From TrEMBL, chain A:
Protein name per UniProt: Multidrug ABC transporter ATP-binding protein
Record key words, sorted: ATP-binding, Nucleotide-binding, Transport
GO molecular function, one term: ATP binding
Organism of provenance: Streptomyces microflavus
Annotated ABC transporter domain residues: 15-247
Listed Pfam families: ABC_tran (PF00005)
Family: Belongs to the ABC transporter superfamily.
Amino acid sequence: MTQEPEHTGPSDALVRFDDVRKSFRTARGRRQQALDGFSMSIPRGSIVGLLGPNGSGKTTALKTLLGLVRPDSGSVHAFGHALPKDQRHVAGRMGALIEGPAFNASLTGEHNLRLIGELHGAGPTEVAEALELVGIAQAARRAYSGYSLGMKQRLGVAGALISGPELLVLDEPMNGLDPEAVRDMRELLKRLRDERGMTVVVSSHILAEVELVCDWVTIVRNGRVICDAGVSELISRGTEHLVVRVHDTVTEQAVAVLERHGHTLTRAAGPRGTDELRMPAPRPHPHAPEVLRLLTAQNVYPRELLVESVSLEDIYVAAVRAADAAAEDGPFDERR
Amino acid sequence: MNAVDQVRGFGAPPWRRLVRAERHRLTAPPAVRRVAAGLPLLVLAFGLSKLFTHSPDTGPALREADARYQEFIEQAARTGMPTGSIGPDSFFDDPRYLMESLSFGDLRTVLLGLGAAATVFGIVSGGADWASRVMLTLTAAEPGRARLFLTRGVLVGGLSMAATALCGLLLVPCLLLAAHLRGSTGGLDSAYWAVLVSQFLRGIVLVGLLALLGYSLAVLTRHVPAALAIAFLYLAGAGRVFGGRGPRLAEYDMDGLTFAVLNEKPVVPMAESDCISGPGCAATHVDLTAFDGFTGILLYLLPVLVLALWRSTRTDVG
């Protein structure tokens, strides 16, 4: 699948990156392009998933938004302010967890949070509320050094929430969380969006989680956005497939029937002496009843008939492959 | 940003909040608290140890001086060595705590110890949050990195100076007690107190500058062990770099400059100095003043401070 980046994004964008470029010098002295014409928008009141392989520029983009990294060129706007020039005006409106949680190991979780909260003018009530919100209130008085990775991660999110931000920036927040904690985190992010109107940006490798929690997804590859759209829209754009599983003794007969009626098929071996016949299934009616009727009329009875839906993972893999193929063909700018 | 935003915490924190938060952050680590509590106790112990290392009874010391003098005379007679003006007094090691002469050296010892501690405190304060990546959170909350750098620097210096002032105020009564019970408080006139207070105040400033030097090195390296190593190398080697760059600084290393700050000529005239060798003696013997010493230390500090400020404000974080 090839997607043209939709740089325009939604009309009420809270954050906007336009053609941002940033390079770093590596330890060997070479220049490495971390962001290469990076453009994206973050819609207000949404949960945005930032996806991409390691080193694709996700964290650099988030750091640019937070003023930790200065772009070489291009522009970043947040809350209507140009960054990093007006970073001071937006600092308290953003909460962030970048590159994992970072706290003083010798202090308790609560003490660490109090120190961050003090900078934002948050008192003990806000600290207690943040700890409660992420579900580690019972461990608040334990030393941070004794926390599990999941607890550290939750404390990091609490630290990001302490200022009561409008925009929450979370870099890999699901790292180290057990399945129950992942579910809690997902619910928390949805609650923050629904009850507080918070906008959330989540960079993650866990595509299934992003699919479950995010409204909007941006896929980054080699420092540029290769796909930027609403999750439901992306999935609806993808092609579903109808899969007919038949016993391998009737495979040829089934193929002949279906091809005679104009269906394009691909075959694959299925489990326990079956074959799978896969064909595109247009929405909203993937012609399953018609296929069933055709086959049974010829005394071919499928073992199973199912509609294979498109996942974000399919979209991600397709987008990354398409971007890689395009990169091999030549520079992006030339292709345009 | 409007006033409501400011109250709600939108935008960067105001100065007062920033200073309070950073003060709490710098003093929060248990290790810092333990050292902060331990230093005054250590200084008290040092001051009170004078009660046990000195004695008001000069009898045994006089007898020992006489015995050693007799031994010396006999040896001189055997070898034909001239005795000159050497008398029993030359062999007298006074066991009393004489406040007027001994307090300067004791105060200097304490100030040098606090200076070393302040350098380490500065390094830890400047480097630990970089090492633990807490600076990512801090710089995201306070984008004015120069504000953050200066606030921390002033706090590191200020807290070190406050600790030094407290330690000095604890030390002097202990020394007075030792002098009262185990020696003499004779000669403690206004001139004496003026000189002692002057040395004390210069020591406080010196400790603040050393803390700032450690802090700057740590911010520059963003790494505690590296800053410790570089601080050592820098203090050991910068004398060669800065040799001859400033007025009358040609041959003085950090030891000499520190000594000059604490022992300028009016305080310890060369003739009364107990120096035998070393850079401290060199500083005293060529009449290096405290002003010269401060100038030299600033010459050491400023390039590091400027580079640290540049790295802190102009380079990417993380």
